[in-house]
Automatic annotation (TrEMBL):
Keywords per UniProt: Signal
Coiled coil: none
Residues of the signal peptide: 1-17
Protein origin, superkingdom: Eukaryota
Cross-referenced InterPro entries: WD40/YVTN_repeat-like_dom_sf
SUPFAM superfamilies with a match to the protein in the record: Oligoxyloglucan reducing end-specific cellobiohydrolase (SSF110296)
Protein name per UniProt: Oligoxyloglucan reducing end-specific cellobiohydrolase
Transmembrane spans: none
Length: 374
């Protein structure tokens, strides 16, 4: 969904919930510099390989990588010759890499979401740590890309918005060679999302966990949905209690679930809300399931808009949610949430946690942060 991705949302000083009692839970910022000084690109793409190897991507064609835990960053900005033409002339395309999925310090796939103009939506891959990037996909017609998810380093799916917001199904592309080539997934069933689309807010509106694919949508007066599939072709859906604005045109409401994360094949979380200015906190912005996504229950805690959620591997019911209005920690699998300390760190779009209680986050104006949850 295009509107969900513009960097137009002002920051809020409001945080929801009381700060966590453990004062050691503090975000440590990792500023990125290039030859021109501090990087100001907005980073919605985030891929954490280990606590030392992290990739981020975002606006201004930007891709950066650290291999030393953030002490230094490699500028892997993608240079290209992409252009678009309109009635006034031909201009260079400035790509916005809303998602990046990396498998090592060498192999990564970056997705440019696009804005509906020619050549703006595209997929790029590297096998040499970003020294060389190769474009592997541009849609035949301008369309908006939302997110990537991977079953393994070879097989992945790319989610795109419906070609027709009124009655179209969500579109899927598929790769079996690690992102070198893509093809349309045909013959899908059950992926109809009339009036809805996905939110490319953090690269996590599609996920693969424990043998199953998941997709979250929103953007219409109907409830936001969570789709699930064993094979990526035949889908079933379930409603959440988060609904859109009935006075907003189909496909353009800011309300919706933005991110989905499952701990295993039964226990999952979705987060979202409205990125619109002044949208209130809501218990419907976060929901949890204990039966594989068949039913979703809203959180007992009211949160402001959250664009990403991640489980802490090996930490049971611990999960972290992040958004431009703050970050939160759940200790009970999403039933209740508390604000993490250092709530001035409210610039994050994406979050990903790894073993050891370590989470990385990326966001606006070059923000990258790290926290260890104890």
């Amino acid at each position: 969904m295009q509107l969900s991705l513009a960097l137009l949302i002002p920051l809020f000083s409001l945080s929801c919930g009381s700060p966590t009692k453990n004062s050691s839970n503090k975000w440590q910022t990792k500023p990125i510099q290039n030859a021109n000084g501090l990087v100001t690109a907005g980073f919605r793409g985030l891929s954490v390989i280990s606590d030392r190897i992290v990739w981020v991507s975002g606006t201004k064609n930007s891709v950066y990588q650290t291999t030393d835990g953030g002490a230094s960053w490699n500028d892997l900005t993608i240079t290209h010759k992409e252009t678009f033409t309109n009635e006034t002339g031909t201009y260079p395309v400035i790509l916005d890499f809303r998602d990046i999925e990396a498998f090592s310090a060498h192999h990564a796939v970056a997705m440019a979401a696009g804005d509906g103009s020619e050549n703006a939506s595209s997929v790029w891959h590297t096998k040499d740590g970003g020294k060389h990037w190769h474009k592997s996909r541009t849609p035949k017609n301008p369309i908006f890309y939302d997110s990537l998810a991977w079953e393994n380093k070879h097989h992945g799916l790319l989610l795109q918005d419906p070609a027709n917001a009124t009655d179209g199904s969500m579109g899927l592309l598929e790769t079996h060679d690690g992102g070198k080539s893509w093809r349309e997934v045909t013959g899908t069933t059950g992926l109809e999302a009339k009036g809805q689309a996905a939110f490319a807010a953090s690269g996590t509106c599609i996920a693969f966990v424990a043998g199953r694919w998941y997709i979250v949508t929103g953007g219409s007066p109907d409830p936001s949905r969570v789709f699930r599939s064993w094979n990526g072709r035949n889908w079933k859906d379930a409603n959440t209690s988060l609904v859109g604005d009935p006075d907003v045109e189909l496909g353009y409401s800011g309300y919706g679930m933005n991110s989905v994360a499952f701990r295993d094949h039964q226990v999952g979380l979705v987060v979202g809300g409205s990125f619109s200015t002044g949208a209130p906190a809501s218990k419907d912005n976060v929901a949890y399931t204990r039966n594989g996504g068949v039913n979703w229950t809203p959180s007992s805690s009211a949160l402001l808009y959250r664009s990403a959620v991640s489980w802490l591997p090996g930490k049971g019911k611990l999960a972290v949610a992040a958004g431009q209005t703050g970050t939160n920690l759940s200790r009970d699998g999403g039933v209740t949430w508390e604000a993490l300390t250092d709530e001035q760190h409210n610039e994050f779009f994406a979050v990903q946690c790894i073993k050891g209680g370590i989470c990385w986050a990326s966001g606006r104006k070059g923000a990258v942060g790290r926290i260890r949850i104890k």
